[in-house]
Amino acid sequence: MALLSLTPFLSLAVFGLLATPAGFLHFRKSKLGLAPFVCILGLAIALVSTVWLGFTSPSSVSFGGFQVDLFTLFFSGVLLIVAIFVTIASLQYMREDPNKGPFFGLLLLSTLGMIVLAASKDLILLYVGWELMSIPTYALTAFRKKDPNSNEAAMKFFVLSALSSALIVYAISLVFGVTGSTGLTAIASSLSTAGPDVRPFGVLAIVLFIVGFGVKMAVVPFHMWIPDAFEGAPVTIGGFLAAGAKMAAFAAAFRVFTVGIWAFNVDFYSTFAII
Q1: Is pTM, for the whole model, over 0.70?
Q2: Hey, which residues does 63 pair with through a beta bridge?
């Protein structure tokens, strides 16, 4: 049962790698090729297994810093539904494009990063999921290579996303320096007994987490990249960023603050007011 809990993640990983070479295979009279059908099949298997685990799994299953519980399954299910809608909407959009394989492969790998974010209970694994979600979206935003607006949008999106990633890495390093661990449960235990000498570092880490997650979630005042990115990106990818990437960032932020940092006795009202 424990290994079956990984079915959604393995499905996206395997079919994400298969989608790109499948783009070179075509039906006799179809312009779409096999890539979109491989993408839909991988997403369908992941979604069905997620729903099945949600109704049959008696308790959460942990693999180190990787935890599959109802929180993970809920966000995974919603994110997979978003990805399926984006894939279906992209069928007509990508009909004449010769790069269908990379498009649908990147879509699957980005979705994998999103659900890894929802399942992360370790900051290192969270960062791996963060980059696995972000890097494919840079390429997807710039997929219309001959469109200057698409290239400009991708560059702005890349720069600000790289900034948010750097802030999160800095926050992780501060938390590790204060607590000596990257596991959220161990961090909560250590922060609950933290002395006043490490308090400034803890507050700085919280601020950096808020800013890093806020850029990806496009919350005020970190939403300046949204107009350019959504205008220049393909229409379906704009929807994917709006409905998927923001939700995954919210799931990660919710897990970090409610599991790891809640025990740190800090005035969150003042922290958010500073930002």
Answers
A1: yes
A2: 66
